[in-house]
Design brief:
alpha+beta, 465 residues, six-stranded antiparallel sheet, Lipocalin, globular
Length: 465
C-alpha cells in the first residue's frame, strides 16, 4: 500500500517495489485516487444520436441513430484539454472547441443495422472482449393478437422477426446473424441473452427454449444446442423413431380397437420440465425414510402441487414476484439435470448470493476488466452497506425477495470503472452506481469521497448547471 498520496511519490514507489502476487491490478487502480475529473463542460454540441455505452475496455463508444436504423461507433480521443491550477470551475482558459463533441470523440463508421420493418433494440449490446466483436439486436413491432402455434405458450407476446447481429467493431463489418421467427426474447438491458467466453445463450420466452450459440473466431454464429423441448441432441430422434414404431404397431390393430392411445404430440412434457419434476420428486422422496410417511409427504408436497409445477414457465424472476410464486432452478448442461431448486424467498439462496455474489456474474476468465467489480462478496464496504440495508428492513422475507429479484443477473450490466471501486471511493448509490441503468438527474452534485484519505472529497459530478 502506498505510504503517500502524492502521485509522483506513488510512481517512484511503483518503480522500486513489487506488489504482492495477485494484487498488481488493484495496486494500479489506486492511481485513480489522483486521476479524477475536475471540470464539467455544459452545453456541448452533440450529434442527434441515441448514446448508449462504452465497451469495457473503453475503446469504443456505441450509439444508435434516432430512427433506430443505424449503428454509429466512436472512439474516444482521451485527454484533449487541460486547465491550470486546482480551481478549474473558474478557469476561463479553455478554447471554444471544448464544447464540441468532435473534440473528444472520433467517428469510426456508420452502418445500417435494421431493415425497413425492423428497429434496433436500443437497450441491448454485448461485447466480446477477446475478438472485439459486438452483438446487437433488431426486431419488428410486437404482434398484438399472436396466434397460438405448436410449442408456444399462451400469454407471451410475439415478434414476427428478431435478429441477433454479430459485428466486428474495429471496422463495422457484419460477420453473421441469427434470426428468430414469431418468437419473443426479452432484450431489455440484456435480460434474455448471456455471453460467457465464446458461448451465447438466448432465451425464447414464447417457446420456452434456451438456444446455445457458439461464436467462432472466424465470426460465425453456430447453433450448439437448444434446451427446452429436448435436452440432449438425440432426444428428438429417439422420440420420433419411437412414435413411428408405435404408429407401425397401430396399423396392425383393427379399426376401432385403439382409440384410447394418447396423442403422441400432446402426451409429453418438455424435456427440461420433466427434469424439473424428477428433481422435485426425488428431493421430497428423500425427506422421509419411513415408507408411509414418504407417501403422505409426496401426496402433500408433490402430487397436490403437480399442476402448479407443470404450469411453471421460464421468465425473468423480477416480474410479478410479489403476486405470483417464483422459483430459481440450476441446470447442468452436460448432465441435463436440475441440480438445485429454490423459491424466491429462500434464505439458503440468499446466503449463497451474499457470500459468493461474484459467481452469479459468471464473467469470462479472460476478461481484464469485469473481474474487478466491487460486490458484497469481495468488498468489505459493500458488505457493510448490504448488512445495514438488511438491518433496516422491516421484513426479512421481503428484503430477501427484493435482493433475489435481480437474479439471474443481467449479462454485462455492471461497469468496471475504478471510480465505482468501493475500496477507493464512497458515493451515494441511490444517485449513481456501477449498474448500467438510466437515472434521473439531481439538482445537487454527486460527491465521490476517498475511502483511504479520511473521507475527503476527491471530485463531484454535476448533472445540471
Amino acid at each position: 500500500m502506498f505510504k503517500t498520496n502524492n502521485v509522483t511519490s506513488r510512481i517512484f514507489e511503483r518503480q522500486i517495489r513489487t506488489p504482492a502476487p495477485g494484487t498488481s491490478v488493484h495496486s494500479a487502480r489506486r492511481f485513480y485516487e489522483n486521476l479524477v475529473p475536475s471540470f464539467t463542460i455544459y452545453d456541448v454540441e452533440c450529434p442527434d444520436h441515441s448514446f448508449f455505452k462504452f465497451t469495457d475496455d473503453g475503446q469504443y463508444f456505441v450509439c444508435f441513430s434516432r430512427n433506430r436504423q443505424d449503428l454509429i461507433v466512436y472512439r474516444p480521443t482521451w485527454l484533449s484539454f487541460s486547465c491550470k491550477g486546482e480551481d478549474c470551475d473558474n478557469n476561463q482558459e479553455l478554447p471554444p472547441q471544448v464544447k464540441r463533441f468532435e473534440s473528444f470523440f472520433t467517428q469510426l463508421y456508420v452502418k445500417p443495422l435494421a431493415s425497413c420493418n425492423e428497429l434496433i433494440c436500443k437497450d441491448f449490446f454485448l461485447y466480446m472482449e477477446s475478438n472485439q466483436f459486438g452483438i446487437f439486436a433488431t426486431s419488428t413491432a410486437q404482434i398484438q393478437d399472436a396466434r397460438g402455434t405448436d410449442g408456444a405458450i399462451l400469454g407471451v407476446p410475439s415478434f414476427e422477426k428478431i435478429t441477433i447481429h454479430l459485428f466486428r467493431l474495429e471496422d463495422g463489418f457484419k460477420l453473421d446473424e441469427k434470426v428468430f421467427h414469431n418468437d419473443c426474447v426479452n432484450l431489455t438491458h440484456n435480460m434474455g441473452a448471456f455471453l460467457y467466453d465464446d458461448l451465447l445463450a438466448v432465451v425464447s420466452l414464447r417457446y420456452q427454449t434456451i438456444h446455445i450459440l457458439q461464436i467462432r473466431d472466424s465470426g460465425n454464429l453456430v447453433d450448439v444446442q437448444a434446451i427446452g423441448a429436448y435436452c440432449r441432441e438425440d432426444d428428438e430422434l429417439f422420440i420420433n423413431s419411437s412414435s413411428q414404431l408405435a404408429g407401425n404397431r397401430g396399423d396392425l390393430v383393427d379399426n376401432g380397437t385403439n382409440h384410447d392411445q394418447p396423442n403422441s404430440n400432446n402426451s409429453f412434457l418438455s424435456g427440461i420440465k420433466q427434469r424439473l419434476l424428477s428433481f422435485i420428486f426425488r428431493e421430497i422422496w428423500s425427506e422421509e425414510t419411513d415408507q408411509t410417511q414418504r407417501v403422505q409427504c409426496l401426496k402433500k408436497k408433490f402430487y397436490f402441487h403437480f399442476q402448479d409445477y407443470v404450469d411453471l414457465v421460464i421468465l425473468k424472476a423480477s416480474r410479478n414476484t410479489d403476486q405470483l410464486p417464483a422459483f430459481f432452478a440450476v441446470y447442468n448442461m452436460e448432465t441435463t439435470e436440475i441440480v438445485a431448486f429454490y423459491q424466491n424467498a429462500a434464505d439458503e439462496l440468499y446466503l449463497l448470493f451474499e457470500r459468493f455474489c461474484d459467481h452469479f456474474h459468471a464473467t469470462s476468465i479472460n476478461s481484464m476488466y469485469m473481474n474487478f467489480i466491487s460486490s458484497h462478496s469481495n468488498n468489505i464496504h459493500a458488505l457493510e452497506q448490504l448488512k445495514s440495508m438488511k438491518n433496516k428492513a422491516t421484513s426479512i422475507s421481503q428484503f430477501v425477495k427484493k435482493m433475489l429479484s435481480s437474479l439471474p443477473l443481467n449479462c454485462q450490466s455492471m461497469s468496471p470503472s475504478p471510480y465505482f471501486d468501493q475500496s477507493l471511493f464512497r458515493f451515494d448509490e441511490k444517485l449513481i452506481s456501477a449498474t448500467n441503468r438510466p437515472r434521473q438527474s439531481t439538482d445537487h452534485p454527486i460527491r465521490f469521497n476517498s475511502r483511504r484519505q479520511g473521507d475527503i472529497l476527491k471530485f463531484k459530478i454535476k448533472t445540471v448547471e
